[in-house]
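Need tokens for this chain, all 377 residues.
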Amino acid sequence: MKEYRPDDFDFNKALGEIKQGIAKPNILICGATGAGKSSVVNYVFGEDLAKTGDGIPVTRGITKYQRDDSGVVLYDTEGYEIGTEKVSHYKTQVENWINQAKSMDLKNQIHEVWYCISGGNKRVTDMDIDVIKSLVSKKVPLAVVLTQIDNLDEEELTAMEEAIVHYCDVPFFRTCVSQDLEVLSALKDYLQWEALIAWAIDQLDESLREGFIGALQGNLTTKRGLINHKIIPLYTSAAAGIALTPIPFSDAALLVPVQIKMALHIMKTYGLDQTLGNLSSLVGSVVVSESGRLLAQTLSANLLKLIPGVGTAIGTGVNTAVASSFTAAMGYAISEICFRCAKAVFEDGKEIVFSEYFNSENIASLMGEWFRVSKNG
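Here are the structure tokens for all 377 residues:
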């Protein structure tokens, strides 16, 4: 195989291309002052973009928050105090802006609305009902995020939920971000964070889901599903396209840049791209070394017999089945290793040595596992 070195690959350029290719959904966050909007954003996406990002006023009372490294764009409505003059202007401002956005292309429309109502208020106000009904009439997907439910007893919670159902007829989700572990334990059967996220994903056009899922804090299983069903197939198709042009195996290194970019895409989806630098070089080195060694092993028929639809002899061209299957196996291995790293770092809070995860032994073992499962499945 023609030698390919990690130094030959522009990691930053590739990561920039990946980011540019991910469409970002626009989410409107509504609610009165103190409704817990920032807490909801912080819990779902890992940080309050309204505090860490640079807000751009798009109209009176509505601010756009967008960061290059986040897969979502948030539009935050200025809060209002119940019973003040701002209440009379709030509904009109939101309605007018939604109307303007609906006339734009998909990229600039509001894709869904999260309307926050605090359990601390112990009631759903007429203002809440009016705004929710107005937004629903605009055919924009909307869910009520019922926040701070630790302030409610069972009877109060039921009354608020019944009001939402009766007057608004929209989905609602119970949430709480208390730091008190005893409170969270007592509420565990009530909290619906996962249901909120599932609803949010389901409302989005397929082209917008990757950005949202990648922006989530945690949710590693959801991210792994996206990687397995969308991201890896994208690169296996690219590898198959390369193999359509008859090239000698000495030039099969053309597959390596595809596999490195795939690895970066997987790393970004799991949130590991923030460690770009030493980790990207390490992954690049492992991909290069294993791609050459294992492809040679595959072609010597040690693994070739495990590839569906491929015989023991494929001539001198890179067979598309070999190229796509080999790249899929590499993607599976990288994804599983990234999953383990992300779980250790983000869920377990461990300090890890990446080289103990990203090494030739682990890559080879997981690729072999993929080949065997694919052949038997």
